[in-house]
Each structure stands twice: as C-alpha cells, then as structure tokens.
Design goal:
It contains eight helices and 17 strands. By secondary structure, it is of the alpha+beta class. The structure holds zinc ion (ZN).
Length: 292
C-alpha cells in the first residue's frame, strides 16, 4: 500500500496480526490501564477479546526522483530463531511482495536499519547456496556507527546470544560483502532526507526525517512501538536498552511533532500505519492518516 506524505512511500508487510499481551511488551502496563485507553476501542491496534496488541512488521520504501530508500528489513526467511516460533525459519512471500509493489530488491539504492534488532535486519540477507548473501545487490546498507559498535561489543562479551544471533546471519554478511556504510547518526542521504539520533530503545537508534520541501514524515522505527505509547509515553518496552533514555527521547519526539502536519510512521503500527500526533505534554493522542 502507498502511505500519505512526501514522495511516494510504499509499505510492504511481512506479518500483521494480534501477537502479544501488552504486559509482555510494556512491563509498566496493566490490563486495567490498557482497557481504559482510547486505543483499546480500536480493533486495528488492540484485540479486546484476546487482550493482545495488534502489530505489523513491515518495510517502508521511499521513492524519491533519485533513489529508492528501504527502511527496516523485518524478520526474514530461513532465519534460526527457535526462541520465537513466529520468527523461526519463515518461508514468507516478502520478496515477491516487494516486486509486486513496484520496488524489487534490485531497485533498492539504500537500506536503512533504524537499529539492529532481529526484526529490523532480517531481510538484509537471504539464504543462497547455503550462505547468507545481501538481499539487495545494488544497495548500500546504512547502519549508525554507535549501533554497530554497541552490538559488536555485546555479541563478543555476552554469555547469552544477543538479538537471536541475528548479527551472524544478517549483519556480518553485509559487512563482509563491503555493502555496509557505517555512518554518523545525523547522516544525510539526499536533500531533505537525513537521520536524527534517537537513543534509548537501543544506543544507536535513529529516526529518518523525510521532506520534499512541502510535506514532512518521520520514519521512527521502534521509538514508539505501539499506539498505546502515545497515550502512555512513559511506557518503555521490555526490549529497550535504556528505558529511561527511551522515555525521554519518545517524549521529546512527541513534543516536536504534536499539533503539526508531520506524519509519523513507526515500524510496527498496524494498517494504515501513518499517524499525526495531537495534544501536548499533558496528554497526547493521534489520528490515522491514509493516502487520499
Ligand atoms: Zn522492532
């Protein structure tokens, strides 16, 4: 589907549905607080019968006159993720869906991973002849230096496998192929399209700012995981490296975009994905925006 906003932004979904209880993702959430939220009345984001969050795992491709820029590469096929069965050895049609959406893998000039969690790097690579090879043969893969250095250190020093071992199958092969561009967290891809540091969810987490001079969108990865965090910006996720910093970053971001025309496009908001933020620091809310 096409999202509203600057340029043509194409969303390709790998997986969407009611997956997890809110308390799994947000340690501070209670069932009572969730059921009292506005989001709880919206079946696009919350399944009241099962008390589960509806989430999407999708890629967004910005088609500018100069480049096709693909943001976040979801979970991927054939990856060994035995701890999470819906991510384990998938065989989904994501690559065919990209092609059908008019943005085949060969057409991608840049891949941006907003951070290096397993559900944002999966399609960096695909299995070919028993080896992990870059899925996007003509792309430079942009990864923030802080993020690369952090996870490289964690994987070397931690006794538990970090990020479901996704470094080995989805990051290292990109570095080995010479297709990674390890960049500063304010890197500009082209005029109007640049990164903004958004640390907390992970140390090198970034937001992509996209403007064509008329309209503005922010592709924010997991800076806000789920619409519940717009009503409850204090709720950081169980997967945030630094929950306090994540909270500060989220509130600063909400303050920047609230009551503006800016579109916000998170990595896991269900269809239609794009929202505008309303309200102020005494209480934020949102409206969904679809392409007219
Ligand atoms: Zn994620």
């Amino acid at each position: 589907m096409h999202l509203p906003g600057p340029f043509d932004i194409v969303r390709v979904v790998e997986m969407e549905g009611a997956f997890r209880a809110p308390e799994f993702l947000f340690p501070e959430a209670t069932e009572e607080a969730v059921r009292a939220s506005k989001v709880a009345t919206d079946p696009r984001f919350y399944n009241a019968e099962t008390h589960k969050l509806v989430m999407s795992f999708h890629t967004l491709v910005i088609k500018t006159p100069r480049h096709n820029i693909l943001v976040d590469t979801c979970i991927g096929n054939d990856k060994e993720r035995p701890e999470l069965l819906d991510w384990h050895q998938r065989t989904g049609p994501f690559l065919a869906d990209l092609a059908t959406a008019g943005v085949p893998a060969e057409s991608i000039d840049f891949v941006l991973c907003t951070h290096l969690h397993a559900d944002h790097v999966g399609w960096n690579t695909k299995l070919f002849d028993g080896r992990w090879v870059p899925t996007f043969p003509n792309a430079k893969y942009l990864m923030a230096r802080t993020e690369v250095e952090h996870w490289n250190e964690v994987r070397k020093t931690s006794d538990k496998p970090a990020n479901h071992r996704s470094w080995d199958d989805s990051v290292q092969p990109i570095l080995d192929a010479g297709q990674a561009l390890v960049i500063d967290s304010d890197y500009e891809i082209e005029h109007g399209i640049h990164l903004i540091p958004a640390p907390g969810h992970t140390p090198g987490n970034v937001i992509l700012h996209v403007s064509d001079g008329k309209e503005r969108a922010y592709l924010i990865g997991d800076t806000i995981h789920h619409p519940l965090q717009i009503e409850h910006p204090d709720w950081s996720s169980s997967f945030c490296s630094d929950p306090n910093l994540s909270r500060v970053t989220r509130k600063e971001f909400l303050n920047t975009v609230a009551e503006t025309d800016s579109l916000v496009m998170p990595a896991h908001f269900g269809t239609p994905t794009a929202v505008r933020i309303t309200g102020d620091s005494t209480g934020y809310n949102f409206e969904t925006v679809e392409k007219s």
